[in-house]
Amino acid sequence: xxxxxxxxxxxxxxxxxxxxxxxxxxxxxxxxxxxxxxxxxxxxxxxxxxxxxxxxxxxxxxxxxxxxxxxxxxxxxxxxxxxxxxxxxxxxxxxxxxxxxxxxxxxxxxxxxxxxxxxxxxxxxxxxxxxxxxxxxxxxxxxxxxxxxxxxxxxxxxxxxxxxxxx
Amino acid sequence: xxxxxxxxxxxxxxxxxxxxxxxxxxxxxxxxxxxxxxxxxxxxxxxxxxxxxxxxxxxxxxxxxxxxxxxxxxxxxxxxxxxxxxxxxxxxxxxxxxxxxxxxxxxxxxxxxxxxxxxxxxxxxxxxxxxxxxxxxxxxxxxxxxxxxxxxxxxxxxxxxxxxxxxxxxxx
Lengths: 167, 172
Description:
The structure holds 2 protein chains of 2 kinds. By secondary structure, chain A is mainly β. Helix content of chain A is 0%, strand content 51%. In chain A, the strands form 2 sheets. In chain A, strands 1-12-3-8-9-10-5-6 form an 8-stranded antiparallel beta sheet, with no helix packed on it. Chain B is mainly β. Chain B has one domain (2-171): Jelly Rolls, CATH 2.60.120. Chain B contains no helices and 12 strands. In chain B, the strands form 2 sheets. In chain B, strands 1-12-3-8-9-10-5-6 form an 8-stranded antiparallel beta sheet, with no helix packed on it. In chain B, strand 9 and strand 10 (131-139) form a beta hairpin. The interface between A and B is large, with 41 and 38 residues.
């Protein structure tokens, strides 16, 4: 039986870093799945997602968020990144933000959509988000960059990129 | 090693008060549970799914919950709890033949650190009080996860036809 769910690459930070990048992504899968667990020593940071190093205003997202007492929804348009995790409440040392991202038809010639689930519980605070992101570009996605808005992700933070094949 | 592997399944041929995955091997990187669930909780179309990890019932469970009722969205939390219990599933008053869909994702389940995880469940039954929820969960224990035990939070039974599947994901 053909394998339909394959690991493409894993990064585990051996030193604190503000970015994790997967590059030279082959176009041989149908969809991509990115699983990231990170922590930081810098309170209040959040992380962002960019494709193919594009820093133009080509991103938008719509999200639903709950902070343990209130649920709300908002959007970003004409943005230079897609919100990725721990926004707006931030994360600090010893806390772990789990972010699962599904990127659909990443090698196709239409604009690219992704679904992001960000889960951060801090035993008394935290937030849970579900976000849909759009990159208005028809190019195949060949690189993915997770980047903080300042500060760094800590040693031991991990990100794994999987490829999913429909055929 | 295959990347996404079935470790164990439990498809109920008769009702059961609990479902346990035990002796979970440490040979994977992440765990996923996918389940289709209904209970016999009388007089209510909604039940809650309780999860205890490693038989640990001390106050090491916390959840941040986002849910929708079909007419409004809300958020709540559990702090220092004795189990996870905030995933909506179908009870006995649900429309016949409807089962909740549930997924739990546990990354790095053998790593010696507190364990973050996500869960997602939908309890749709063509009634006005159906629920959908997404949770951020934290198991504040550094022990490797070796067992998962599911029960109804209202002491009901899982009905026949409920199914639970445990998968291991390897990034080796």
